[in-house]
Write a structure and sequence with these properties.
single chain, 107 residues, mainly alpha, 4 helices, 2 strands
Length: 107
């Protein structure tokens, strides 16, 4: 979880550095196409909240939601690892093994 927080804060810092670097560039000396790209990029970046990431500009993800999902997955996996010798988990493991063996015999 700490690594996720570190990576998201790293992304936010990189975004701030990109914006500050682009603001230092003399846009008037660039080609029309480059100017247009930079202006569109700056509008997209300034529209996002610092606690959001985007999926290629199609939609935004709230970082709280992503953190919640990752914590849920990590908790579930660690619980399953701790319960690997529990009778119920052994029963499920054997049931899945029998099911997989049956599928492989059919194909």
């Amino acid at each position: 979880m700490i690594s996720i927080i570190y990576v998201t804060s790293w992304v936010i810092e990189k975004k701030k550095k990109i914006i500050s670097y682009l603001r230092l560039i003399r846009i008037s000396e660039l080609t029309v196409h480059a100017k247009l790209q930079i202006k569109m990029f700056m509008q997209q970046i300034s529209g996002y909240e610092p606690n959001e990431i985007t999926a290629f500009g199609f939609f935004n993800f709230d970082l709280k939601l992503i953190m919640s999902i990752l914590v849920l997955l990590i908790t579930g996996i660690s619980t399953m690892l701790q319960m690997k010798d529990h009778p119920m988990m052994l029963y499920l493991k054997n049931a899945l093994k029998i099911s997989n063996d049956h599928v492989h015999r059919i194909t």
